[in-house]
């Protein structure tokens, strides 16, 4: 079984030439994103203008500008699609439109694609072309299949971007690769991606990419006093749980900036003693999405040759039920000395993250960023279209929301006031794992995690409420969205803003 996804080597090329009828005849497919201010006039700028204008008239050109799809009258019968976008469209709206276009034209048999923009200014045109290229790559990569008769995978290999002189195609390619990795790992069934297999595939990935790899197994975690993590692992039938550390160091001069990425990697979550219902348990192989997003972000930044040092810490275990499963009212001690009163065994994510954050903090990064499918409360608050962001630096809130808007992976910042800690007061331990009800559990979970991050360390927690969305989200066509890779790549960028972070709140 293939656990590590196959590499898809796209030929992503910039082409200065504008679209022509002869040029379009050299590709299997073409996508156009054009301004919607005057659709008829915009269509007149395209090759085969009369054909497009006829299709537009037949569509009824209602308030919502239609998607136009046809075969062009050339020898190749090029499959072409046109979508209309407003000049002030958000990144999410552009990506969503790009995804709709690619659903129509990225098919088996389409090996070459052209991306064009028209009737837009230079800035909007560059953004449209980046969205089209990103959507094309996301749609063209294979996903795990275990059918006896697999669905044919797309075979797109060449993407020509016309007129995209300022479009950041390198970022598009890097984030598409990271997103593919995250979605692939998440989609794998739990009998294939258990902790043992996950550890093996991460070591393989590290060798391929030139990263260092270290694994803290249960024995090592016992020596570190990681009682919160080890409580969750107790019921596992195999002893493969642990914390993986992947390390990327940029070539050349040593970077002064170090990022810590942390991901929740619960390979299957039964709920433990507080057993989930059959519906609640069905997709719980996806409870490792935080780890998949973290390692996908690492891949994207490394492929971009980001000038930052990155340590990626992944908490790999399962939350099983059995005679040794941890129970409500147990008190365990985390590796930083904080004692925790267990309330609910299905709040296992914050338990494994507690020790993983504490361990990651020892490396003294400039910023600690964690990803986790942590709470249903965040889904209730935001639906599955936004993810929740939490930080111990109020100055970071506009930075986080700006990165969400720019990337098209939107986040909303929630409060982190200390008085929420009243809900986690314990009569016998330093902190309760969670409260007895679900009110504001996403906020309480973040406040709980803050106990394991030193005050002097800037920290961001992302609760991945948009990690799953039926029918996909933005340009991503699959239910598991890989949300977070584009956001983190946009947020971290070249890392220069990290120098301006205040060391203490």
Give structural notes.
The protein has about 500 residues and is of the alpha/beta class. The protein has two domains: about 10-160, Leucine Aminopeptidase, subunit E, domain 1 (3-Layer(aba) Sandwich); about 175-500, Zn peptidases (Aminopeptidase), CATH 3.40.630.10. About 35% of the residues lie in helices and about 20% in strands. It is built from 16 helices and 17 strands. It has helices at about 20-25, 40-45, 50-60, 90-105, 120-140, 170-185, 195-210, 220-225, 225-235, 280, 290-305, 350-360, 375-380, 395-405, 440-450, 485-490, and strands spanning about 10-15, 30-35, 70, 80-85, 110-120, 160, 210-215, 240-250, 260-270, 310-320, 330-335, 340, 365-370, 385-390, 410-415, 430, 460-465. The strands form three sheets. An eight-stranded mixed sheet has the order 7-8-10-9-13-17-14-15, with helices on both faces. A six-stranded mixed sheet has the order 1-6-5-2-4-3, sandwiched between helices. Helix 14 (about 395-405) crosses helix 16. The protein starts with 10 loop residues before the first strand and ends in a 13-residue tail after the last helix. The model has no long low-confidence stretch (mean pLDDT about 95).
Q: What would you say about this model in short?
A:
By secondary structure, this protein is of the alpha/beta class.
């Amino acid at each position: 079984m293939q656990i590590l996804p196959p590499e898809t080597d796209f030929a992503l090329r910039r082409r200065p030439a504008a679209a022509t009828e002869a040029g379009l005849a050299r590709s299997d497919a073409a996508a156009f994103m054009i301004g919607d201010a005057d659709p008829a006039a915009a269509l007149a700028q395209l090759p085969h203008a009369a054909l497009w204008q006829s299709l537009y008239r037949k569509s009824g050109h209602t308030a919502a500008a239609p998607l136009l799809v046809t075969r062009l009258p050339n020898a190749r019968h090029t499959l072409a699609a046109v979508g209309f976008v407003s000049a002030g469209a958000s990144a999410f709206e552009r990506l969503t439109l790009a995804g709709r276009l690619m659903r129509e034209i990225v098919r088996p048999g389409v090996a070459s694609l052209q991306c064009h923009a028209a009737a837009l200014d230079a800035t909007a045109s560059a953004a449209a072309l980046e969205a089209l290229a990103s959507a094309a790559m996301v749609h063209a990569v294979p996903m795990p299949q275990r059918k006896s008769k697999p669905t044919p995978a797309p075979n797109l290999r060449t993407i020509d971007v016309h007129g995209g002189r300022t479009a950041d195609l390198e970022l598009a390619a890097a984030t598409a690769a990271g997103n593919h990795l995250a979605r692939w790992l998440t989609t794998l069934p739990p009998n294939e991606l258990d902790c043992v297999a996950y550890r093996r595939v991460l070591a393989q990935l590290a060798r391929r990419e030139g990263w260092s790899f270290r694994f803290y197994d249960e024995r090592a975690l016992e020596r570190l006093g990681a009682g919160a993590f080890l409580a969750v692992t107790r019921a596992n039938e195999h002893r493969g749980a642990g914390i993986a550390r992947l390390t990327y160091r940029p070539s050349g001069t040593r970077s002064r900036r170090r990022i810590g990425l942390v991901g929740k990697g619960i390979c299957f979550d039964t709920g433990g003693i507080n057993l989930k219902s059959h519906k609640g348990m069905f997709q719980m192989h996806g409870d490792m999405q935080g780890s998949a997003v973290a390692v996908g972000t690492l891949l994207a930044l490394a492929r971009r040759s980001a000038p930052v040092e990155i340590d990626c810490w992944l908490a790999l275990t399962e939350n099983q039920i059995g005679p040794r499963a941890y129970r409500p009212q147990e008190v365990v001690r985390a590796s930083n000395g904080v004692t925790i009163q267990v309330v609910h065994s299905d709040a296992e994510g914050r338990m494994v993250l507690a020790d993983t954050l504490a361990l990651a903090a020892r490396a003294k990064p400039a910023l600690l960023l964690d990803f986790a499918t942590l709470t249903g409360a965040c889904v209730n608050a935001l639906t599955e279209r936004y993810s929740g962001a939490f930080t111990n630096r109020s100055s970071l809130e506009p930075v986080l929301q700006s990165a969400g808007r720019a990337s098209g992976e939107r986040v909303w910042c929630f409060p982190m006031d200390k008085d929420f800690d009243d809900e986690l007061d314990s009569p016998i331990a330093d902190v309760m794992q969670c409260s007895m009800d679900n009110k504001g559990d996403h906020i309480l979970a973040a406040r709980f995690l803050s106990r394991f991050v030193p005050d002097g360390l800037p920290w961001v927690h992302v609760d991945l409420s948009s990690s799953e969305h039926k029918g996909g989200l933005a340009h991503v066509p699959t239910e598991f969205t890989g949300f977070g890779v584009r956001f983190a790549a946009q947020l971290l960028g070249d890392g220069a803003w990290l120098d301006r972070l205040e060391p203490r709140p």
